[in-house]
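SUBJECT: protein chain
CONTENTS: sequence, C-alpha cells:
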Amino acid sequence: MSWSDMRLGAMLMALLVLPACGFTPMYATNNGTSVAADLSMLDVKAPENALGRALKYNLLDILSPSGNPPANAPYRVELAPTLYEEDVAIERDADVTRKNTVLVVPFRLIDVETGKPVMRSVARSRTSYNRVDSEFANITASRDAQARVARDVAGEIKLQLGIHFSSNPRVAGAAL
C-alpha cells in the first residue's frame, strides 16, 4: 500500500467519522435558518473617521452579498477601534527601519429592539512594514498596513459573529 493510498483511506475514514461526532458546518442551513442569512441582517456602527469607515465597509462587504446594511436590521455591531504603531527595528543612530501596525477593536452585538448587548468581544490584527529613506514610501506603506489590518479584523469579527449565531440559533432566528 502506497503513501497516497494510505492518505486517501485516512481522508475517507475522516469523512465517515466526522458526521458521527456531531460536527456541522457553520454556514449550513439548520431548521430553516442559516448563519449567512443572519449575518446579512446586521448593521454596523463605527467612528466617523478613515479607519472607522474602512472597518465598517470591509465588514459590510463580507457580511452581506450586496455590501449594504438591511433597512430594518434586527442587530447592530458597534465598533470601537484603537490603532497604534510600534517601532520594531531601531538602528544605532535611532533610525526606525521596521514598524508594526496594531489594530484592536472591541465590539458589541446589540439587539436593536431592546438596545441591550447580546455579545461582546475583541478582534485584533497586527502587521508590519519596512521603513525606508523615502517619506512618501513610508506613508504609503503605513496606509497599506492600516488597510490590511482593517480587512483582517473585519474577517475576524465576521468569524466571531458567525460562531455566535451558529451556537445561538434561538437568538439568530428570533429576529428573522
In short: The beta strands are 29-30, 33-34, 42-45, 75-79, 82-90, 96-111, 117-130.
